[in-house]
């Protein structure tokens, strides 16, 4: 699946990632001025149970349900480990 990747800073010097299908806007419930575009039109294997290095669980299921997939608060990425 081709996606656009966004990133935002979290407390504790961590990061969260959000992916949406390429060309789709961030759905309104996830719209946040803190999201910064990182990459556009990137291929990811949305069939993976865990999308590394963005630490997103079940990306296909999340996108089908919500229109986007996001890093869990349990898997936030340390800034030094960020892609």
From TrEMBL:
It comes from Ramlibacter ginsenosidimutans. This is Uncharacterized protein. InterPro entries: DUF6139 (IPR046137).
